[in-house]
From TrEMBL:
InterPro entries: DNA_Adenine_Mtase, DNA_methylase_A-5, DNA_methylase_N6_adenine_CS, SAM-dependent_MTases_sf
Gene3D superfamilies registered for this protein in UniProt: Vaccinia Virus protein VP39
PROSITE patterns named among the record's database cross-references: N6_MTASE
Class of this enzyme: transferase
Organism taxonomic ancestry: Bacteria, Thermotogati, Deinococcota, Deinococci, Deinococcales
Name under which the protein is recorded: site-specific DNA-methyltransferase (adenine-specific)
Organism in which the protein naturally occurs: Deinococcus aquaticus
Length: 348
């Protein structure tokens, strides 16, 4: 299963334009897990420039040399779950694919995921199944796939599984049979995206089980009584220190307190006018947080997804007719964290 048949530039451009036209937001993270010499990533870069982060993987290291502009490169068998990059990624907004179609074994490719689903399917379908594990909530896969992924008996179980997860397949254009010279497979540009109705069913299954939403532990007036001159004491961080999606140490003081919240987490103000620039990812540093801040503590690779959801829904997060404020319960609701009987984090 190598299939080094590359996408012509005009089709690569068409595919990327289709992907962009069906999303309101410009993708921040784009990947091709079978990138070859980079036809699809090059097309995305021609249109979007260097603003997004690009990520390239191919089983063949030589082809990767042709896209040396792409800084995040991996050389893994994407159908093998033990990929070196599994937990290094943030979630991906746009996955471009023209995967291999050829069979190594007549029984198909085995797929197993961490939720316990397993099947055997075509190589192209196995790329789809593996890819959706990396998608952000609003993310999509757009690629050139054999039409058989939509109807073959071999891919039926995988198709049903994908539909059950809430994704919809859309066929955008059937490609002429001479698109890939020497190959007779009937192909189309197909996309996969979560349907609108499943966005509202988004729940804890999408995030790690250990996600915690809680408030900072120190009130501002109390922090003023325990300031410390020792450089070993933690900095006290308040809403005013969140600037341009980063923690600014300017004006921050140290406190004698062990109420440190260890990273990684996403911070947002509990009170104040909605401001996307204050929704901040914290990956390092030991801070004592003001109780005017709410933090969402989770796995490193879920942080961007949570930050982007909070930014998109910022107008729903803050309520109140005079001073705007939010609560732990509302943040949980926005993130669709269904706690059931398990009360993770404190009450609002
Ligand atoms: C049909 S080409 C498409 C390349 C590129 N995406 C394009 O559109 O031009 C398929 C690519 O998949 C790579 N490939 C084959 N098997 C793979 C695997 N198991 N994991 C990752 N890449 C693989 C091949 O080396 C080849 O570059």
């Amino acid at each position: 299963m190598i299939d080094q048949i590359y996408t012509p530039n005009n089709i690569a451009q068409e595919l990327v334009n289709l992907a962009l036209s069906s999303n309101d937001q410009s993708p921040l993270y784009i990947a091709d897990f079978a990138c070859g010499d980079g036809a699809l990533l090059n097309a995305a870069r021609q249109i979007l420039g260097d603003r997004p982060n690009y990520l390239a993987n191919d089983i063949d290291s030589h082809s990767l040399e042709k896209i040396d502009w792409c800084r995040e490169q991996y050389c893994d068998d994407f159908t093998n779950y033990d990929r070196s990059f599994n937990h290094r990624f943030r979630k991906i907004d746009l996955i471009l694919l023209n995967p291999p179609f050829s069979y190594k074994s007549s029984t198909g490719i085995a797929f197993n995921n961490r939720q316990g689903y397993s099947t055997k399917c075509s190589p192209a379908m196995s790329f789809i199944l593996n890819a959706i594990d990396f998608l952000s909530i609003n993310g999509q896969v757009v690629g050139i796939f054999p039409d058989s992924v939509l109807w073959s008996e071999r891919d039926r179980s995988a198709r049903e599984h994908i539909l059950h997860l809430g994704y919809e397949f859309t066929t955008h254009r059937h490609l002429p049979s001479n698109t890939f010279p020497g190959y007779t497979v009937s192909t189309s540009i197909i996309s996969l995206k979560r349907s609108e109705s499943t966005h509202s069913n988004h729940n804890t299954d999408d995030y790690s089980e250990n996600i915690v939403v809680d408030r900072g532990k120190l009130q501002v007036h109390k922090s003023l009584g325990i300031t410390s001159k020792s450089s070993k004491s933690p900095l006290f961080i308040h809403t005013t220190h969140l600037k341009s999606n980063q923690i600014s140490h300017a004006g921050a003081y140290r406190v004698s307190s062990n109420k440190i919240i260890g990273p990684p987490y996403v911070l947002l103000p509990r009170v104040g006018n909605p401001n996307k620039e204050k929704i901040t990812i914290v990956r390092r540093g030991k801070y004592v947080l003001s109780d005017c801040l709410i933090y969402v503590k989770t796995n490193d690779f879920e942080l961007e997804d949570i930050q982007s959801t909070l930014m998109q829904k910022i107008d729903l997060i803050y309520g109140g007719s005079c001073a705007k404020y939010t609560t732990i319960a509302r943040v949980r609701k926005i993130l669709r964290i269904n706690l059931g009987n398990d009360q993770r984090g404190n009450a609002p």
